[in-house]
Write a structure and sequence with these properties.
- The chain is of the alpha+beta class.
- Strand 2 and strand 3 form a beta hairpin.
- Among the domains are: 54 residues; 30 residues, no CATH class.
- The protein has a three-stranded antiparallel sheet, with no helix packed on it.
- The longest helix has 52 residues.
Protein backbone atom coordinates (compact mmCIF):
# COMPACT_ATOMS: atom_id res chain seq x y z
CA UNK A 1 0.00 0.00 0.00
CA UNK A 2 1.04 3.57 -0.58
CA UNK A 3 2.53 5.59 2.29
CA UNK A 4 0.37 8.59 1.30
CA UNK A 5 -2.76 8.61 -0.86
CA UNK A 6 -2.68 12.34 -1.68
CA UNK A 7 -0.23 14.96 -2.88
CA UNK A 8 0.98 17.43 -0.22
CA UNK A 9 -0.80 20.43 -1.78
CA UNK A 10 -4.38 19.07 -1.50
CA UNK A 11 -6.59 20.82 1.07
CA UNK A 12 -7.59 18.91 4.24
CA UNK A 13 -11.32 19.20 3.40
CA UNK A 14 -10.76 17.66 -0.04
CA UNK A 15 -8.72 14.79 1.51
CA UNK A 16 -11.50 13.93 3.95
CA UNK A 17 -14.13 14.07 1.18
CA UNK A 18 -12.11 11.69 -1.04
CA UNK A 19 -11.43 9.34 1.88
CA UNK A 20 -15.14 9.21 2.73
CA UNK A 21 -16.02 8.49 -0.92
CA UNK A 22 -13.50 5.62 -1.26
CA UNK A 23 -13.72 3.94 2.16
CA UNK A 24 -15.84 0.91 3.07
CA UNK A 25 -16.21 2.15 6.68
CA UNK A 26 -14.77 4.51 9.28
CA UNK A 27 -14.46 4.52 13.06
CA UNK A 28 -12.75 6.40 15.87
CA UNK A 29 -9.41 4.81 16.83
CA UNK A 30 -6.36 5.73 18.90
CA UNK A 31 -3.09 5.54 16.98
CA UNK A 32 0.40 7.04 17.06
CA UNK A 33 0.60 9.97 14.65
CA UNK A 34 3.94 11.44 13.67
CA UNK A 35 4.47 14.94 14.98
CA UNK A 36 5.26 17.94 12.82
CA UNK A 37 8.46 19.89 13.56
CA UNK A 38 6.32 22.65 15.08
CA UNK A 39 4.51 20.16 17.37
CA UNK A 40 7.85 18.65 18.39
CA UNK A 41 9.14 22.11 19.34
CA UNK A 42 6.01 22.85 21.40
CA UNK A 43 6.42 19.54 23.26
CA UNK A 44 10.12 20.16 23.86
CA UNK A 45 9.35 23.61 25.27
CA UNK A 46 6.64 22.17 27.52
CA UNK A 47 8.99 19.40 28.66
CA UNK A 48 11.62 21.99 29.59
CA UNK A 49 9.07 23.99 31.63
CA UNK A 50 7.76 20.87 33.39
CA UNK A 51 11.33 19.75 34.20
CA UNK A 52 12.12 23.18 35.68
CA UNK A 53 8.93 23.06 37.77
CA UNK A 54 9.73 19.54 39.01
CA UNK A 55 13.21 20.70 40.06
CA UNK A 56 11.75 23.73 41.84
CA UNK A 57 9.08 21.66 43.64
CA UNK A 58 11.69 19.08 44.69
CA UNK A 59 13.90 21.84 46.11
CA UNK A 60 10.91 23.27 48.02
CA UNK A 61 10.01 19.81 49.30
CA UNK A 62 13.58 19.19 50.50
CA UNK A 63 13.57 22.58 52.23
CA UNK A 64 10.27 21.89 53.99
CA UNK A 65 11.02 18.27 54.84
CA UNK A 66 14.52 18.83 56.28
CA UNK A 67 13.26 20.14 59.67
CA UNK A 68 10.65 17.38 59.79
CA UNK A 69 13.26 14.73 59.07
CA UNK A 70 15.47 16.14 61.84
CA UNK A 71 12.56 16.10 64.30
CA UNK A 72 11.64 12.56 63.26
CA UNK A 73 15.22 11.39 63.85
CA UNK A 74 15.27 13.05 67.27
CA UNK A 75 11.94 11.43 68.20
CA UNK A 76 13.08 8.00 67.00
CA UNK A 77 16.23 8.28 69.14
CA UNK A 78 14.11 9.20 72.17
CA UNK A 79 11.70 6.34 71.42
CA UNK A 80 14.59 3.84 71.28
CA UNK A 81 15.82 5.11 74.67
CA UNK A 82 12.34 4.81 76.18
CA UNK A 83 11.90 1.28 74.86
CA UNK A 84 15.27 0.33 76.32
CA UNK A 85 14.27 1.79 79.70
CA UNK A 86 10.94 -0.02 79.64
CA UNK A 87 12.54 -3.34 78.71
CA UNK A 88 15.24 -3.09 81.39
CA UNK A 89 13.07 -1.44 84.01
CA UNK A 90 15.87 1.06 84.66
CA UNK A 91 16.80 4.55 83.57
CA UNK A 92 20.28 5.93 82.97
CA UNK A 93 20.96 8.56 85.61
CA UNK A 94 23.97 10.71 86.44
CA UNK A 95 24.19 11.36 90.15
CA UNK A 96 26.74 11.13 92.94
CA UNK A 97 27.52 7.57 93.98
CA UNK A 98 29.49 6.39 96.97
CA UNK A 99 32.10 3.61 97.01
CA UNK A 100 31.93 1.71 100.34
CA UNK A 101 34.71 -0.85 100.84
CA UNK A 102 34.21 -4.28 102.38
CA UNK A 103 37.77 -5.27 103.30
CA UNK A 104 36.95 -8.85 104.31
CA UNK A 105 35.75 -9.75 100.80
CA UNK A 106 37.95 -7.21 98.99
CA UNK A 107 34.86 -5.84 97.26
CA UNK A 108 33.53 -2.30 96.93
CA UNK A 109 29.81 -1.59 97.01
CA UNK A 110 28.63 1.35 94.91
CA UNK A 111 25.63 3.04 96.56
CA UNK A 112 23.31 5.82 95.42
CA UNK A 113 22.25 8.85 97.49
CA UNK A 114 19.45 6.83 99.09
CA UNK A 115 21.96 4.22 100.27
CA UNK A 116 20.76 1.61 97.77
CA UNK A 117 23.36 -0.76 96.32
CA UNK A 118 23.82 -0.13 92.62
CA UNK A 119 26.62 -2.61 91.91
CA UNK A 120 29.60 -4.41 93.37
CA UNK A 121 33.12 -4.30 91.98
CA UNK A 122 36.47 -5.75 92.98
CA UNK A 123 38.67 -3.57 95.13
CA UNK A 124 41.47 -1.75 93.31
CA UNK A 125 45.00 -2.37 94.66
CA UNK A 126 45.26 1.16 96.05
CA UNK A 127 41.98 0.64 98.00
CA UNK A 128 43.13 -2.48 99.84
CA UNK A 129 43.97 -2.22 103.53
CA UNK A 130 47.55 -3.12 104.23
CA UNK A 131 48.44 -5.06 107.33
CA UNK A 132 50.99 -3.59 109.67
CA UNK A 133 53.23 -6.19 111.32
Amino acid sequence: MKKSLFPIDILPEERIEQLQNECIGSEEENYDRELTPEELQVLEDEHLEVSKRIHKVKAELDEVSAPLKAEKKKLEKREAYLIDCLEKGTVLDKRTVYAIPEYETEKVGIYDEAGMLIRIRPMFPNEKQYKIK
